Structure formats: structure tokens, C-alpha cells
Amino acid sequence: MKLRTDFTYGMSGPDHARKYAATLILKSPALGLEMAVNGTGEAGKTPAKHAACQVVLDILERLADESSARDFDPSITREYALARFLLTQQAFLLDTAPVPAPRWIDLQLFGFHLASDASALVAWAAAVDKLLELKVNLRVESYLWVAFRNVIESSADPQHTLDTVLSRSMDLLEQAQDPEELEPQLLHRLVHLCDLHRCLGVQDSDVDLPELIRDWQLLYRGRLTVNTPSPDVRLSGRQRAILDAALSTVAAARGAVLVEIVGSHPMRLRFQSSVPLPQAFTREICALWSRVSRTATLEATECGIDVSVSVLRTSTGRGPIVQAVEAALQPAAQPYRAAVADLLHDLKNQLVAARSAASQPAEGRTARLQQQLTASRHLDEAHSLAQRVRAASSLLEPAGNESVDLGRFLRQYARRMLDRLPGTISLSIPDASTSVRVALSERSVTAVLDNLVGNSIEALSRGGAITLAWTADEYEAVVEIADNGPGLPSQVAAALADGQRIQSTKPGGNGLGLLSVRSLLARAGGQLSLASTQVGTAWLVTLPIATNASEPE
To answer: What is the pTM (predicted TM-score) of this model?
Structure first.
């Protein structure tokens, strides 16, 4: 929490039964405030110190409960003031810079641990707003807003199911050495993965349910029956994508499709096929799409899919913390996912072309060999695209509680990189005289550096210099990767600053490298930013310092 601490002690009682009472001084350089916390009398300085710290831990534990912030009595001055002080410090930190979200979740700070339950998180935020009585309006895309969005998105799929299924699909694809080995179900899964990433990567417009049903009736003319009136309900773009996915999965069985509205609170739509569906695959698709939005869930039935759709209601008289939470609960486009969707779309087209070429009748041996060559080329291109998808998605695999000694690692990394650099490019060796551990795995830090240093190498086609440097304080480390090349194209810098999709300037590139790095760092509570420089490009990578999550900061 970036608080400085000090202790003073008082003594009482005779020598043979002396009691020590510790006063913990919490100092906030950010707020310019300090708070004195008195502990109980104990038989020794160390127990007295622990008693004073326990007072703070007890307040933090109470603040972690859903609505206990409402229960602090202003008449109990010390307790009430300490609760406000701790919450104000946390709010200030969140609104001024990224924080290590996984650590804050473990420590149950500022409601992050409630992110998986939208109603509990909103109730907690309302209680905190009442306690703090802040009269401020948060700016759009404030750090506080972004922090809540990151933990909410992570909590929606804590096991990273989408990334796991994507990786498994790439495994199956890379094992196929002949177009005839491509199972139709793999192609169907890739279509859904592409649609899922597109849904998460763009912000589609809202639609009225009656209008959506009319679109379905045109698309599935002669096969679709809707036998209940459709209510006048407004659906978000993601909710529409989820319903489209449910209908396409049921329609893929090639039977007649019946759509019914069988519930209203929440609204429940039933998509029913006249023929049975493959149960394992249908359950997999339902599980994937249920992670797209916290307002819609899918459930597989014997011959169809049931979809429940609810609406998040906005609170009235909202304070700034509730504003941030409710803004974060609204789905936001993830540019990284949109870039992966483009790759998956191209990959799927290559596989379809490979199967088509391999299945066409051929007259004569030469024509048959030509078809096999064409099919093989499409399959080779699909394998190449799969490797690009894997390289990007591997950055976002679930991370444990790993850490790495940054200074030592950077020196080792620089030495390895020197062996691979062309002779026209020099690379500085960073200092390792101090030791600090950052809260990322060696694999993750390597992936970040490989992307950024790789970009520098490509920019220095005529030679130049790359510099690796770092610095750290007790809370975070910053690594600088700089080169003296031609500089980052202005459109890439602007897209990164605005959090938008990055259009690569490389032939065949799609900006996935920078998007993956930014997503990885955001998950860990770090940040990727572009530093101002007169020559070339300079990146600043901010990394959280590793701490023992069992100890208060």
C-alpha cells in the first residue's frame, strides 16, 4: 500500500510486570498524511508491535467484507478515521498508477477479491463511497476504472478456458500432416474461436431482440420457427453474439430449429433442433461462450441450448467508486483479441481451402499430384498461422507466484542476445550490482524482452545500438529498452496511447507482439509505455516488486 511505518513505545507498571504499548505511525507520502495507531499493552516490545499491527489488519479485514464499510461508527473516532485513511490511500494509489492486481486480490484490498460477483462488488463500492464521501468525478479510462476492469475480466475466466482451448486446437492442427486428417469438429471449433475473439475484440452496437429475430428468420429461411412473441428487449453487442453462437451451433445439426422464449426474469431463450446434437462439443461451446459476458450463460440440452440473459442495472446517486465499478462491468473491446481473430479467420480459410483442394476429383496422375501440392501449401500456411497464434497466446497463459531476480536476469539475457545479434548492432549490458525480485516468471519477462528487443533489431537493419537499463524502488522496477533507429511510426504510438488496435507496419504483421506484451503486463499489475526520446524508440516496462503475499505491505 506504499505506506511508511514507524513505531514508538510507552511503558507502564513495575519492573517485574512491565507492559509495553506500541504506537504504529502510518505515513502516506502520497496523501501528505499520517495516522497513529495504538496497540494494547503487552509483555515485551515485539508483542506490543504485533498488537498495533493487528489493529490495522483487523480494520482491513472488516473493509474486505461486502458491506461492512457501512458499519464503521463515526463516534468511534480512531476506528472510523483509520478505516477512511486506509481506503483513501488505496483509492489514491489505484487512481494514479497501475497496481499488482493479483497481490491485491490475495490481500483482499479495495474489493478486488469480489470481482467475480458483480452485485457484491457494487454493494461494497456503495458502502465505501458512503464512508469516504468523496466528491469527485473520475476521468474516463482512469487507472481506478482500468484496475477494476482488469480484475473483473480476469475473474470472468479465472482458468483462462478460452486460451486453453485455443492452445489445444493449435496442437491438434499442428499434428495434422494431411488435409484428410482435419476433423470437421476442429473446423467448427475454429469458427467459434474466431467469433469469440472477434466478439471480445470489438465493440458491436446494441440491437433490439425483435430485429435480431427477423435477421435470423432471413438467414435460416425455411428452417427456423419462432412460436412465442419476442419482448421489446435491448441487447448488447456481446449478448447478440452469444445468441448468434447458440443458434448457429444448434442449426449446424442440419435439422429444423425452434426458438422459444421460456422465461422473463432473467430472459431465457431456448434453441431446439429436431435432431440430437453432439453433446460433448455442445457443452464445450456453451462453456466458452458463457465466459464472454457476465450477463449471459448457456446450458446444453439433449437437442439444443438454453440461454439466460440478464440486464445489469445502474445504481442511482452513484459515488466515484460505484461509478468506476459499474463502468468496468460494461464490456470493453480487447484489441489483442481482435488481432487473434484476424489470424484465426485466415487460418480457417486456409484449412477450408486445403480440404477443398484435397477432395476435388482429379483426372490423371499429374492433376492429382497438383491438387495434393495445392492442398499441402494451404496446410503449410495454416501451420505457419497456428505458430503465430501460439506465440501470441502463450504470453497470456496463467501465471503462478513466480518471481525473478531482475538485475541478474537482464545481464544473462543480454549476454545470450549478444550471441544472436548481427555484427552491426551493439547491445549494452545492464548493471546487476543490486538485487530485486519482480513478480513475473522468467518466461514472461523473456517474452516481453524478446518482443521489444526483436522490434529494435528489425528497426536497425543498417546497424545501430540497443540499450537495456533498469531501476527500482521498494514498490516497482522499470526496465528501459531503447534503440537509435528511425523511431516508432506515429500511428503505432497513437494507437498504443489510446488503447486501440495496433496496425503493424511490417509485411504480414498485425501488431500482436505489442498487444500481447501490454496484456501480459496489465494482468501482472505492470505497464508498457513509450518514453520520449530525441532519437529512435524507447520503451519503459514497469514491473511490480515481488513480495510475500502473507505479509502486509
So the answer is: 0.78
